[in-house]
Specification:
By secondary structure, this protein is of the alpha+beta class. The chain has 10 helices and 15 strands.
């Protein structure tokens, strides 16, 4: 959704995410008796399911990073006040406010940053603040961004649109190993732009046990409309964590180091994806995960690659974040001391994922555009040859880093 331009504009490109060969894990939380980080993780995951509940209405494949979007918007929230802040906190399921919230977010993001040599995979998160040279941003806002999000303040002249756009896009490409290009499209930055916040995440890792490429064969993938598409089906036969319920099967594929994993939720019915999406909640998923056990699994799943792009303005407003998008009602006085209208014009999210025999590669970017105004075991057969949902989750924190739906792997 786009608003008409007021006097001055602020573009907040908040979050960019890249994941490369490996899968991440779901952050689960309960409020009482939990650490601050666990409670924040629960909020991030609740937001993830709220967001997916809206985006699942889209047809076809879906892939996004709720952690990226949540981080970007939480950085924006740091500069909000009044009713705008209340609505953002409710929509994002932020359990804390002020310094404590941002300190906890810093702990969460810092704990996810790992070195490939120490863990067997690499996961990097980075933030940056790009502000109009000479514009009066509040020192407290810049302090919070620098201290808790390591978002150093860099000045640009947005009147030189192409130069500013090139500088920000180059940073994004570097962090994401060139997986996300042209995050900021032509025409997005204008002389009215005042601020761009970027958050990037890069992940690369292999499966703990890779698929044998020699076993990958073409096979049918059944579509929701009854037709078939040709997929490259990967196969393996090994011990995996597995769970089965009346309508679903679920299997977990660990990545090297076993901290991260991919969780595949497969409807038993070929056309059961809509039913599963309608019933799936964070608490139900956590219940299923708790009841998983190791089984011998004969696994078949498609090799797939997909890209998604979402304009999330209307979606976030439907979740209750309305004032932030209204030039007359938005209150972002925590960002600037300049008495002018300052509101979010649009939130853009772009993502990429490639799942193959070696592992997983994924990337995502979020832009917030702001303006002023043990018995013998039976072998389990798990054949993902019809639409399914998958999560990339951090098994230690429980944080949901990515959610996806494979409707057509071709």
């Amino acid at each position: 959704m786009r608003h008409s331009i007021s006097n001055k504009a602020v573009i907040l490109i908040v979050s960019l995410l890249f994941v490369s060969v490996s899968v991440l894990g779901i952050l689960c939380v309960s409020a009482l008796g939990k650490t601050n980080k666990e409670v924040v993780v629960e909020g991030v995951n609740d937001f993830a399911f709220d967001l997916y509940a809206e985006l699942k209405k889209e047809k076809g494949n879906i892939f996004l990073s709720p952690l990226s979007i949540s981080t970007a918007l939480t950085m924006t929230y740091a500069g909000s006040a009044g009713k705008t802040a209340e609505q953002m906190a409710a929509a994002l399921h932020l359990p804390q406010t002020g310094e404590m919230l941002h300190a906890t977010y810093s702990e969460l993001l810092g704990g996810l940053n790992v070195d490939e040599k120490s863990r067997g995979y690499s996961l990097t998160l980075a933030n940056a603040l790009w502000g109009q040279a000479g514009y009066k941003f509040k020192d407290e806002f810049k302090r919070v961004m620098d201290r808790y999000y390591d978002a150093g303040f860099k000045e640009l002249n947005f009147k030189e649109e192409e130069k500013a756009r090139g500088t920000i896009n180059a940073w994004v490409e570097e962090i994401t190993r060139e997986k996300i290009k042209d995050l900021i499209p032509k025409g997005l930055l204008t002389p009215l732009t005042r601020l761009v916040l970027t958050n990037a995440i890069y992940f690369k890792g292999d499966w703990a046990s890779q698929f044998d490429k020699n076993l990958t064969k073409e096979g049918d993938f059944l579509l929701l409309d009854g037709k078939k598409s040709v997929a490259h089906m990967m196969h393996k036969n090994e011990d995996l964590r597995y769970a089965e319920r009346e309508s679903v099967k679920m299997v977990e594929l660990p990545y090297a180091g076993n901290r991260l994993s991919m969780l595949i939720v497969l409807p038993k019915k070929n056309d059961g994806i809509t039913e599963i999406e309608g019933m799936l909640t964070l608490s139900l998923l956590e219940e299923w995960i708790d009841n998983m056990s190791v089984k011998k699994v004969l696994l078949s799943m498609p090799r797939f690659k997909m890209e998604s792009e979402f304009f999330l303005g209307r979606t976030l407003q439907s979740l209750g974040m309305t004032d932030a998008f209204d030039a007359q009602s938005a209150d972002f006085t925590g960002i600037t001391a300049v008495p002018e209208e300052f509101f979010i014009d649009e939130v853009i999210h772009k993502s990429f994922v490639d799942v193959n025999e070696e592992g997983t590669e994924a990337a995502a970017a979020t832009g917030v555009v702001m303006k002023t105004l043990s018995m013998p075991e039976e072998r389990v057969i798990f054949t993902a040859d019809h639409p399914f949902i998958f999560f990339i989750r951090d098994n230690v924190s429980g944080s949901i880093l990515f959610i996806g739906r494979v409707a057509d792997p071709s």
